[in-house]
Amino acid sequence: MDKRTNIKLLIDIFMTFFKIGSVTFGGGYAMIPIIEREVITNKGWVKNEEEIIDVFAVSESIPGAIAINSSTFVGYKIAGKYGAIAAMLGVVLPSFIIITLIAAFFSKFQDNEIVQAAFMGIRSAVVALILMAAIKVAKKAVKDKLSTIITLVTILLILILDIHAIFTVIGGALIGLIVYFAAPHKLEDIHEEGGNGN
């Protein structure tokens, strides 16, 4: 890849993630279906949905916002460290610019009935976006009885016992490692089930 092509690719990465950051309301989880569509369907930077689900899983398992983590991850995969920087800047800048403008003027309009009505509608739409992302991820990630049990137990631990999410992620990773070392054939069965379900 020559220098001109590389710069063109970096600009393309930046503009793609700038667009994602500009049109997504509701934060990182709401960005998931849009990132998926852009990097798989529109750009072909990621091979398939399985791969992007892995990116989201890693991004959620480490500190930081999932939108920034996943964008940086994908950018690095496409064009190394400069791709990571381009993707991260692209996804962050729209929010930075918009929130700076809102912060400057919001206090003057926050009690306005029209503004409050608009935010009521925005909050409802954001819930739908997050729910859609959750359903789409679940269809790809929960493939067998074991992953179903892990998902349900995790939900119960977080909702009922108020266990911190990081401990459930670590627990899930430990269960995966135990299955890998104790019953490696089980992982093969899971992959086969997933393949048959697609």
Q: Would you give an account of this structure?
A:
This protein is an all-alpha fold and 198 residues long. It has a domain at 3-111. It is built from 8 helices and no strands. Helix 3 packs across helix 4, helix 6 (145-159) packs antiparallel against helix 7 (165-182) and helix 7 (165-182) packs across helix 8. The mean pLDDT is 78.
Notable characteristics:
globular, 0% strand, 198 residues, mainly alpha
Brief rundown of the structure:
The chain is mainly α and 198 residues long.
Provide the fold topology.
Layout: H1 3-23, H2 28-42, H3 49-61, H4 66-109, H5 113-141, H6 145-159, H7 165-182, H8 184-197
Helix pairs in contact: 1-2, 1-4, 2-4, 2-5, 3-4, 6-7, 7-8
Helical stretch tally: 8
What is the structural class? mainly alpha
Q: How much helix is in the residues?
A: over 70%
Q: Could you report the average pLDDT, rounded to the nearest whole number?
A: 78
Total number of beta strands: 0
Largest sheet: none
